Amino acid sequence: MQDLLYIVLGLTLLIFGGSWLLKAAVALSLRLNIPKIVIGMTVVSFATSAPELIVSVKAALDGFPDLALGNVVGSNIANLGLVLGITLLLGTINVKKSFYTTDWPVMMLASLLFFGFIYFDQELQQHEGIIMVVLLFAFLVYLLRFQTPAVEDEQPEDDVLLPNYKTFLFLVLGGTALWGGSEFLIGGAVGLASYYGVTERVIAVTVVSIGTSIPELAASVIAVIKKEKAISLGNLIGSNIFNLLAVLGITSIITPIKVMDQGLLTNDIFWMLGLSFLVLPLVFIPKGLRLGWRDGIVLVACYLIFVYFTIQ
Question: Which whole-number Å values give the CA distances from 205 to 32, 58, 179, 198, in the listed order?
Fold first, then answer.
């Protein structure tokens, strides 16, 4: 009963947190005259990826490396399969050229880099973590200097320029609520999963990863309802890049992460690479530069198949 209460409380905090964070992100993009996709890929992504970072660092330090790795790999799968899928079922996203010339390639590069680092020696080492964090900083510098909006914003006239103190307040409240909500949700979900005797890796790539992806889902669904499509797509791409380069990078700098359960290398990592790649052809088929409800069905179906095979 207590675990169920934690889950409900966590979800409530996450919904409010997503709304507050979105207000702050829109206000920041207006105040600094920065494209919304950049705000989505930096401020919103950092705040919504904070649960993955906290969970992964703590898991690695506590001697649960599969929880740290599975959490990130599972979250990236959930971000594209579940979160983007559900977001697309609620509304269409029109995509511009810079999405496939910059944002998607960087996400694929980060995914392949992680694969190369972990697959052959089954360990993410300190120097590899440093390389990942340096690449993230280089990407952020590039974004802030050169990036143009990659997604059309349908209702720019609805944007409200908030006073600085309100922007800061919404940013802090949103980030705190997302972090607190994730803590409650993970605590309740892991409690329930442990009760049913599921393995550490399976808990990580399903229950924990969905729990830590709930902030992305909350922020993206609220963004798409309010017609802030740029933040919705940018948030998910940014979160996946941040999860790999920053979360695993920082975690492995603190302590090397070893693969304990081979299922991560024989199943999960290939699902992550496959879904990351799948987003590109979906953007062009059947209609060019658009993601719609059909693409949402494909992504959600892929995610459900992944969960089915993982639990089996």
Answer: 37, 16, 19, 11
**Conformational region of residue 33, where left means phi above 0, alpha means psi within -120 to 50, and beta covers everything else:** left
CA 59 to chain CA centroid, Å, is 18
Phi and psi torsions of 109, nearest 5°: -60, -45
d(CA 71, CA 210): 9
CA angle (156 as vertex; 297, 154 as ends), nearest 5? 30
Mark out the alpha helices in the chain (DSSP H runs).
2-31, 36-39, 45-61, 65-78, 84-90, 97-98, 104-119, 126-146, 164-195, 200-202, 209-225, 229-242, 249-254, 263, 269-284, 293-311
Q: Which amino acid is at 52?
A: E
Residue 192: strand, helix, or coil: helix
pTM greater than 0.85: no
For 63, left (φ over 0), alpha (ψ -120 to 50), or beta?
left
Which residue from 158, 288, 134, 132 is spatially nearest to 231, judged by alpha carbons?
Answer: 158
Instruction: Point out which residues pair with 94 in neighbouring strands.
Output: 290
CA nearest neighbour of 76 among 102, 105, 111: 111
Token look-up 């609805």 returns: 158
| Packing angle, helices 45-61 and 2-31, rounded to 10 | 140
Q: Give the tens place of pLDDT for each residue, 88-100.
A: 998 888 777 777 8
CA pair distance 220, 276, nearest whole angstrom? 18
pLDDT digits (tens, 9 = 90+) for 40-64: 667 766 666 777 787 788 888 888 8
